[in-house]
Write the structure tokens for this entry.
Amino acid sequence: MAARRSWRLIELRTANIALYALIAALGAVYWDTLLWAGREFIGQRLGRISSPRERSMARSAGEMIVLRGPVPEAQALLEESVAVEPASQPVCWLGELHFRARRYGLARQQFERCLRLDPLAGLAYRRMAEILVLEKDAAGARRILERGRDLLRGEIPRTLPRPDPGVASKYNDKAEAVHRAQRDSLRMLERELGRRP
């Protein structure tokens, strides 16, 4: 009986060691992510970062730009959103804000950054072409539009949605929305190319 009990203790100690080793391994693998989450949590608690709402901030700012033009509140929201998570949509909207405020140098920087994040962002190609036209570089404008058009032409067939009945409908709907947005971007770029000599 005593021998059986000691084996049980050894098994528990071995299980505990294995558990601690697993926790240490997971900590090592996800160390950077854990540090980032800790910093962001502290920043949020100290009021430097409002709650993790970067996507809604970007959406609100985008609506402000469309409805009211380049207002300072929209710029602040977009800059905060991009600081939390640099995604292509808020970066593109930040470029749009600068474009509408006629700050073309800043707009160009943001659109170039947007295209590095998402090479299929049709609006960024269009606005870059408009900036190049303002800089008297019609050939450069045509090249950037053609580059966007060619990328989209190559990508659209690859991202053709194939609805899967085994997948939740929201994912099928998202695939449809992405494909539709790419088709709309391609049509917009083709229209722009048709208008330019």
Remarks:
- The radius of gyration is 25 Å.
- The chain has a mean pLDDT of 77.
- Residues 118 and 172 are 21 Å apart (CA to CA).
